């Protein structure tokens, strides 16, 4: 059971000219088993929403609420949110020099579960998760994301998604920069995660391409920090045909 | 009349103490050093025997001898004091410790010279010469612990084709003062790995310098330091490319924490006209863990010939990378643990490069112990 509820969310960032409001009243409810796609043009605030959910210090919530199963998420620190069951697959995963993938994954798993994973099964689990996204298990001994190609970084995000097994996954433009093979591999990973049942997925994307592989239950069009239109998967088809033009010109 | 010390890229040394007036702190080579805390080493503090007790553990096949101060091996590295403390230590040393790796001996085990300070009441002067004869291979660790006021000259001589690792491990107690001058002469096709690790001590100032005695020589200088509250750790490096086709690679990494922690890194490289086809790179990185620290990092590169393979340097000083911490924390890892991972990661590659297995665990444990003082508190 997991419900992520976002109500009238206003978020601003500090700029040289003072605070600038990016999100201007976002309402969104993701129930378990549901996949929501958020689509929108560049600069519409999609990534801001993703980072705000996971608690990036750059973003200030000025009003509104985010709750996970009724519990106030905004009161939680970044790591508390992750331990509560939120996961963010990042558009630009960060390199952490000198920290091996295996050490990182084990430390994260220990933090999420509150106890260290059993050594024997853990190594198998890690290798299996890497195999499933066609990542050479030699990556386990490399430093986190260091020297990884764009596609390898995204696959590494999916490995984490599968191993950490959150309640709600936020995927921030996980499809960007991927070739078609990598896109399929990443999409299959997300679909496996969904099949576990009870999982919420918030899929943020600029393109409709990934929605051919991951079928959303709901599509929200994001423009100028707000949801401009909502619908089912057919809305994605319409965006594919017509683009964002009508929303952008309406917003101006 | 003193020596011309305006350029540390063209140092002119002298064995005559009269050529080295007492520094005022205004000199280029002294401007970062807290002279008042040197316990008179730079001035006229008397030296006495017994300031450190030397316990040597020679690996099988390596000879450790204690010779008189006039032993002919002294000076064979080409070391000529370029500052007053080195000149004073040269004059005052009453003996020479010689570590000799015989020709063609390949020694797997590590030779350890353990220097245990007996107190900071009197200053000590010491002289060590490490000679790796032709085509030999060995590892020598100079370990400094306890408390002392010590000035020493350490000469490292690599004959043709020798492969030597020298680790200088400053694991001093908090009140120790150590001024060390370590000079290497690298023979034809010889390879030196010089490692300096500084954790303890009140003031630690080390000169590590290298010159070449023929083409094809290579030096790797690795350094790792952790400057705590009030601590001054200064590493002054100079690689003098005096022969063609030689290589040098310098990587020093340090972390600083606590009020008044001060790290200084001077990375000098001179490529002489004769040194065609050489390759050099030097890098210094500082990680600032708390407020109130200062890191000075000065790379200098002087090139007298353009006919080289490559020359470069990098220097970076920064705080924790917020993006790294956010990424780790977004995976459920608590903030203190995330910081711990980042600091261990910062040093990990370097520890791996040192390549002395018996030291690796000790260095990681020391990093952990240093972290417990601030980051994990």
Automatic annotation (TrEMBL), chain A:
Q: Which Pfam families match?
A: ABC_tran (PF00005)
The keyword Nucleotide-binding appears for this protein: yes
Q: Which UniProt keywords apply?
A: ATP-binding, Nucleotide-binding
Entries under InterPro entries matching the protein: AAA+_ATPase, ABC_transporter-like_ATP-bd, FeS-cluster_ATPase_SufC, P-loop_NTPase
Q: Does the keyword ATP-binding apply?
A: yes
Where does the ABC transporter domain lie?
Answer: 4-249
- Check the record and name the PANTHER family matching this protein: ABC TRANSPORTER I FAMILY MEMBER 6, CHLOROPLASTIC
Q: Which family does it belong to?
A: Belongs to the ABC transporter superfamily. Ycf16 family.
Q: What is this protein's name?
A: Fe-S cluster assembly ATPase SufC
TrEMBL record, chain B:
Q: Give the SUF system FeS cluster assembly SufBD core domain ranges.
A: 117-346
A single Gene Ontology biological process assigned to it is: iron-sulfur cluster assembly
Q: Which Pfam families match?
A: SUFBD_core
InterPro entries documented for this protein: Fe-S_cluster_assembly_SufBD, SUF_FeS_clus_asmbl_SufBD_core, SUF_FeS_clus_asmbl_SufBD_sf, SUF_FeS_clus_asmbl_SufD
- Signal peptide residues are none
Instruction: State the family it belongs to.
Output: Belongs to the iron-sulfur cluster assembly SufBD family.
Name used for this protein in its record: Fe-S cluster assembly protein SufD
**Provenance organism:** Nocardioides marmorisolisilvae
């Amino acid at each position: 059971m997991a419900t992520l509820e976002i109500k009238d969310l206003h978020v601003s960032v500090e700029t040289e000219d003072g605070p600038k409001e990016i999100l201007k009243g976002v309402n969104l409810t993701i129930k378990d088993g549901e996949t929501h796609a958020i689509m929108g043009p560049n600069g519409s605030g999609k990534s801001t929403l993703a980072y705000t959910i996971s608690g990036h210090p750059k973003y200030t919530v000025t009003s509104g609420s985010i709750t996970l199963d009724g519990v106030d998420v905004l009161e939680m620190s970044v790591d508390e949110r992750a331990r509560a069951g939120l996961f963010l697959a990042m558009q630009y995963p960060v390199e952490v020099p000198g920290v091996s993938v295996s050490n990182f994954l084990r430390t994260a798993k220990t933090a999420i579960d509150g106890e260290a994973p059993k050594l024997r099964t853990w190594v198998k689990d890690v290798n299996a998760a890497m195999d499933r996204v066609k990542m050479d298990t030699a990556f386990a001994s490399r430093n986190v994301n260091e020297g990884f190609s764009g596609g390898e970084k995204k696959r590494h995000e999916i490995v984490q998604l599968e191993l950490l097994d959150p309640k709600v996954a936020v995927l921030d433009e996980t499809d960007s920069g991927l070739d078609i093979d990598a896109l399929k591999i990443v999409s299959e990973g997300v679909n496996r995660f969904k099949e576990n049942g009870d999982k919420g997925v918030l899929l943020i994307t600029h393109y409709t391409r990934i929605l051919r592989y991951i079928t959303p239950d709901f599509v929200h069009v994001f423009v100028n920090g707000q949801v401009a239109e909502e619908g089912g998967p057919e809305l994605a088809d319409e965006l594919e045909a017509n683009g964002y033009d009508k929303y952008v010109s309406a917003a101006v | 009349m003193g020596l011309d010390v305006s350029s540390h890229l063209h140092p002119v040394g002298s064995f005559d103490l009269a050529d080295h007036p007492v520094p005022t702190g205004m000199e280029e080579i002294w401007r970062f050093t807290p002279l008042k805390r040197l316990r008179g080493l730079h001035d006229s503090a008397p030296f006495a025997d017994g300031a450190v007790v030397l316990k040597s553990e020679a690996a099988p096949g390596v000879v450790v001898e204690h010779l008189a101060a006039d032993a002919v091996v002294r000076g064979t590295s080409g070391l000529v004091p370029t500052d007053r403390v080195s000149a004073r230590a040269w004059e005052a040393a009453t003996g020479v410790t010689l570590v000799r790796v015989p020709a063609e001996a390949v020694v797997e085990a590590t030779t350890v010279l353990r220097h245990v300070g007996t107190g900071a009441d009197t200053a000590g002067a010491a002289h060590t010469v490490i000679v790796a004869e032709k085509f030999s291979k060995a590892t020598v660790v100079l370990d400094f612990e306890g408390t002392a006021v010590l000035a020493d000259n350490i000469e490292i001589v690599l004959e043709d084709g020798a492969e030597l690792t020298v680790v200088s491990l400053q694991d001093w107690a908090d009140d120790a003062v150590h001024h060390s001058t370590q000079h290497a002469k690298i023979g034809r096709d010889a390879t030196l790995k010089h490692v300096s690790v500084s954790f303890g001590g009140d003031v630690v100032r080390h000169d590590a310098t290298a010159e070449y005695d023929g083409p094809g020589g290579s030096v790797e200088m690795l350094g790792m330091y952790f400057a705590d509250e009030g601590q001054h750790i200064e590493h002054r490096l100079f690689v003098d490319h005096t022969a063609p086709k030689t290589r040098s690679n310098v990587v020093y990494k340090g972390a600083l924490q606590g009020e008044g922690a001060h790290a200084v890194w001077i990375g000098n490289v001179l490529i002489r006209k004769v040194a065609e086809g050489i390759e050099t790179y030097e890098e210094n990185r500082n990680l600032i863990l708390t407020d109130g620290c200062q890191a000075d990092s000065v790379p200098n590169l002087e090139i007298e010939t353009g006919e080289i393979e490559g020359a470069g340097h990098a220097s970076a000083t920064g705080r924790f990378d917020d993006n790294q911490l956010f990424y780790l924390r977004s995976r459920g890892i608590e903030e203190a643990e995330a910081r711990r991972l980042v600091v261990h990661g910062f040093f990990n590659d370097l520890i791996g490069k040192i390549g002395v297995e018996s030291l690796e665990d000790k260095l990681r444990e020391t990093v952990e112990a240093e972290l417990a003082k601030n980051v994990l508190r």
